[in-house]
Amino acid sequence: MRAAAVSIALVLASGCATPAFPDMRWRESDPVVRPLQSPDRESRGRLVVKTQCVESLISTGDTSARFRGYRLYDEEGRLLYASPGSWEPEDVRWLRPGRYIAVAPVRKRFLEFHDIRIQFSIESHETTIVDLTRVTESTTSP
Q1: Residue 37: inside a domain
Q2: What is the CATH number of the domain that holds 53?
Q3: For 70, which of 2, 33, 100, 104 could close a Cys bridge (C-beta 3.0–4.6 Å)?
Q4: Residue 9 included in any domain
Q5: What is the tens place of the pLDDT at every residue in 52-75?
Q6: Domain of 66?
């Protein structure tokens, strides 16, 4: 009984037991987030990922400022980067021009999370913002 309780607690803490999107390849039919602004004169583009806050069962100054992680894939579905989470509200990555996919857990209800998948493109000298803080419960329904 105690082992089962610990297992359930670990699954809840991890947010998701299995990936919701087993095939990470680019889909022509899915919407794409496009760049908005030009930061400087490099051959790469800038990606800014904003993720949701981590809710804490015990609210302290330290835990309320932590933000959820995300996974970054190339258009072939290869994992490029896995962010475990951050103390900062934005994570910045410099990427070569191309098409990418971000997958991140978003809160559906209290202690219930759902992975969402967002396709985006990177262009030279441009910034693409993937803002997961704007995802609501209605947009996470499968």
Answers
A1: yes
A2: 2.60.40
A3: 104
A4: no
A5: 777 654 444 444 436 788 899 999
A6: 18-136
